[in-house]
Structure formats: C-alpha cells, structure tokens
Design goal:
The chain is an alpha+beta fold. Helix content is 24%, strand content 29%. Helix 4 packs across helix 5. It is globular, with a radius of gyration of 22 Å. It binds zinc ion. It holds the Pfam family Peptidase_M1_N.
C-alpha cells in the first residue's frame, strides 16, 4: 500500500503550527528565479493536491514573508490571508472530499532563514550563493508547502540564476538552458519527498564525478555519484571522500538498494556547524574537509540518511530517533567494516558517555527541545545495537534490510519498528525496548551473547 492511501495522520505535536492534515500534496512544480546579489527569489509554485475525507472550504499552506502576486485554485482566483507564516486559502468553490485540485502561488521577495531554537532554518544567503537546510521546519522560508514530514510528494524544480552559478537540487537534472546571461536548471525528483528534505545549493562550483578507484568493489547497481565544490578544495575532497563509493557498496549490502536514482554531495563555500541530508543530496562545509578524513564518519552518517529518514520517513518529529539512531549506527558499521573500531567498541564508548550525563531523555518522544540533543544520537545508536545483540547477526541484518524494503518511500513511527523487529526473534523484546525507548535511566550496555 502506498503511503498516499493511508489516512492522514494528525498535525505534528512538536510543531502544531506547521502543516495541514486535511489534504495531501502529491506534486510540487516550482519555477523560480534567484538573483544572488540582491538575494531576490520569485516565481510560481504549482501544487497538485487531494482533499481528505472532509470537503474543504479553506486550507492552509506554510510560507514565510513573501509578497504574494496571486493565488489560483483549479485555475480560479482564490481569497487568502497571509499571516505569521501561514497562507490560508479560500477557493472560489469549496473542494469536495477526495477531490483532486491544483494551487498556483505567485510570490516574490528576499528569502531569509526561519528563526528557531536551533538557529536559522531554510534558505540561507552565503557570501557568494545560497543554500537550503530546512530540517525540521525551514521549508516555508522559500516555497509554499504543506510542511509536515508525512506529506511526501514528487518535485520538479526549475531555478534560473546568473550563468556562472551552478544550481544543485536533489534528483535528476532534466535540462540546463542558457539564455543571455542566465541559466535555467530543471531538476526532477520523482521519489516521494518530504518538504524538509528539499534542498537548493547555488554557488560557483566545480562538478566532479565520484568514481570507485578500487577495482572489484563495484556496486551491484551503479549509483551515479557527483560532487559539487569550490575548485581549490578538489585535492582534499578527492582524499576525504575517496571511500564514499565503498561506503555506498557496503550500505547497499547491509540496508538494501540505494533508494534514489543518484547521489550528490555539495561542499558549500562556507563553514557549516554540521553537514545535513536532503533527498539524494548531502551538504557539507569547507570545515568538513581536512585532508585526513577527520569527518569520514559524517560522510557515512549523511549517506545512511538516504535510507533512514529520506526513503523511510518518520510520520512526525517525535520519531526522530529512527532517523538519527540508524544513521549513527551506520557510522559504527562503516568503522567496523572498514578496519576501524567495532560497533561494540563504539557502543561501549557511547554508553560510558551517556552514563555520565543526565538521564531524562525519552528516546521515542524526546520533546521538541531535545529532539536534536547529542544524547538522542548516541542512545539511538545504542538502541539499534541492543537490537543487534538481541536478534543476533543474521536476523538483525535481515530485519534492517526488510525494514527499508517494506517501508521504502513510505512513512513510519516507532511502533512500526518495534512490531517489525519482534518478527525476527522468539524472544520477547518488550522489556528491552521499553527500557531503551520510553524510560530515562540508561539500560546496561548491550552485549552479544
Ligand atoms: Zn543525522
């Protein structure tokens, strides 16, 4: 069953102001123009959507402070109000339950990050270009959307910008057309994508194919891997990301086929606190290249999110540990399989670290304030390790591979994983998982029997 056929889950408890569960969007077509100097973004967003079980007299989109030109619903001008990041639209005629409809929003303005407890989210102007890092609620900083992770849609994104700049958006580059001094880049992301996972990078970048130097280590199905980065960083990049093809190979072996058509890595011409994942793309900062693979665990972490988070997506934000726990564990698996410390050693280190910290984090519902807390990542990794120890090697890896296959391009919650894992053992996992997921105190370090 496709996620589109499931009943719409309610509004996210961590971000009740975001999203509208009364309808679903299945496709976004954005045709935008961006001028880096004045930081000016404008154009049209066309959404194809379906009303839920109730007729819609009005509905809402999330969009930050832009000037709205006009809004059409099914081609007819609609009434709207635009206040505090919420665009409330009243179509000329109410939409019937289950009816397909289109919304067209013409808008223009100076995009800026959405303020949050984690700093600015979304569209960010760089010294020379721009990037978009939206997790969790930054998407409305640059386009009108139904901003909730469960509402996944396909995207076609067209961006016109001065020709010296390269535009990177997740997905397949359909066309690149230069007219006068501007170039239009059109990308298609056919796979269902959450609004927070749509990214844009604009900069003066070199394009590099990432190929596998080691003969005999060929991915089962070659995933095209491309990098975009400032030219001077080329030598460091070649070394630091040199093992990414082997990583891709390992993760396909452990987690199943790479879920998208291609994988891109952007190294923005700026330092970034943390790298971040988007659909088919990961973005790093200049500080993540040091020429000695000092950030290689993050290369693994971001790649793993393509399976955990991007393909298998959380229904709402309280399940964030499903993304970060598996991505953290993927770091440990990469280390273990590439001649570094074993996952068990990493688990012991993480356990010792957590033992010395306050134990008031409930992994399966950490609350908005703690959803990106360091402890969530470490405890998430440990919980996956606890499953590995409880299930045993064979059953654990079969469980993980089946998980990404069954929920490929879908939406999940913690209860789904608990039920799923239970099918791979005769042991009862309830007490073990209850302690890791729902209680504060740190359970003992899991060890393989
Ligand atoms: Zn992560």
């Amino acid at each position: 069953m496709s996620p589109k056929q499931l009943p719409a889950p309610g509004v996210d408890t961590y971000f009740p102001g975001h999203g509208d569960a009364r309808y679903r969007v299945h496709r976004y077509e954005l045709a935008l123009d961006y001028r880096p100097g004045p930081n000016r973004l404008g154009g049209t967003a066309r959404l194809s959507a379906v009303a839920g079980a109730e007729p819609l007299r009005e509905f809402a989109l999330d969009l930050a402070d832009f000037r709205i030109g006009r809004i059409l619903v099914d081609g007819r001008a609609a009434h709207y109000t635009h206040r505090a990041g919420k665009l409330r639209i009243r179509p000329a005629k109410a939409l019937a339950a289950g009816a397909a409809f289109t919304v067209e929003v013409h808008y223009t303005g100076n995009p800026k990050p959405v303020r949050s407890q984690w700093g600015g989210l979304g569209w960010e102007e760089l010294t020379d270009g721009a990037l978009v890092a939206s997790q969790p609620v930054g998407a409305p900083s640059w386009y009108p959307c139904n901003d909730r992770p469960a509402d996944k849609a396909s995207y076609q994104i067209s961006i016109t910008t001065p020709s010296p700049y390269t535009v990177i958006v997740g997905g397949r580059l359909l066309t690149r057309t230069t007219r006068a001094s501007s170039t239009t880049w059109v990308y298609e992301q056919a796979a269902p994508t959450s609004s927070y996972l749509v990214t844009v990078s604009i900069g003066q970048y070199e394009t590099l194919r990432v190929t596998d130097p080691a003969a005999g280590v060929e991915p089962l199905r070659r995933v095209p891997q491309t990098a975009y980065l400032p030219t001077p960083l080329m030598p460091r990049f070649t070394h630091d990301f040199g093992r990414q093809p082997q990583m891709m190979h390992l993760f396909e072996e452990l987690f199943g086929p790479y879920p998208f058509g291609e994988y891109a890595v952007v190294v923005a011409d700026e330092e970034l606190d943390v790298p971040f994942e988007a659909q088919g793309v990961s973005t790093f900062g200049t500080n993540h290249l040091d020429g000695i693979r000092g950030s290689e665990r993050l290369v693994a972490h971001e790649l793993a999110h393509q399976w955990f988070g991007n393909s298998v997506t959380i229904a709402d934000w309280r399940h964030i540990w499903l993304n970060e726990g598996f991505a953290k564990y993927a770091e440990w698996l990469w280390a273990e399989r590439s001649g570094g410390r074993t996952a068990a050693q990493h688990a012991a280190t993480a356990h010792a670290k957590l033992a010395a910290l306050p134990q008031d984090l409930r992994l399966a519902d950490p609350g908005r304030k703690l959803m990106f807390d360091d402890r969530l990542y470490e405890r998430g990794g440990l919980t996956v390790h606890a499953l590995r120890c409880a299930l045993g090697e064979q059953a654990f890896f079969r469980m993980v591979k089946d998980w990404t296959a069954i929920h490929r391009h879908g939406v999940v919650g913690t209860a789904d994983l608990v039920a799923h894992a239970g099918r791979y053992t005769d042991r009862r996992l309830d007490a073990l998982l209850d302690a890791w997921l729902w209680r504060g105190p740190l359970p003992p370090l899991p060890v393989a029997p």
